[in-house]
Design goal:
Elements: E1 6-11, E2 23-30, H1 36-39, H2 42-46, E3 49-52, E4 64-72, E5 77-82, E6 87-91, H3 97-106, H4 125-128, E7 131-132, E8 135-136, E9 143-147, E10 154-158
Parallel strand pairs: 2-4, 3-4
Antiparallel strand pairs: 1-2, 5-6, 7-8, 9-10
Amino acid sequence: MSSFHWEENISLQCYNTFRIQVIARYVVRIQNASLNELVQSSLFQIHRHMILGGGSNLLFVERSYDGVVLKNEIPGIEPISRDDMHTSLKIGGGVTWSSLVDYCLTHNLGGIENLSLIPGTVGAAPIQNIGAYGVELSDVLESVETVDLVDGKTRTMTRAEC
C-alpha cells in the first residue's frame, strides 16, 4: 500500500499565479523528502512529472497536463544551530519564501530581509538564486538537501555545488 495519495484530474488554477485553468492527470502532495517509494511506483515511472512549488514562475499553455504534478508541501522552519553571530535553519521546501522572511524578522535573524515579498517557495529559491537590493540567497545558503527523481535517494549539496 502506497503512503502517497494520488489525486486524479485536479485543477491547478489555484496553484499558479496566472490562475490559468489547467487539469493535471495526477497530483501527489509531497510532505517529506522520502520519495524512494514514489519514484519506484509504476504510475510515476510511466508518466512525465514536474515539481510545483508556489507556481509563480509557471505558465501553462495547454488545458491539461498529462503527467504527475509533485506539489511541494514540505513544511517546517527549525533552528539547528546558533551562536552570537550566526543561526542555521533547516527549512522545508514547501515553506513560502515570505513565511521564511517573516520568521527571520520575528526572531531577529538578519540577512534576508531585503528578499521580502518575493513570491514562491523555499524549494525553488536555490534554483533561482533569488536576490534583491544587493542580497542574494547564495550569500546565506549553507546547503540544500535534494532528492533524485530517478532513484529517490537524497543528497546534500553545499553552497559551492549549488
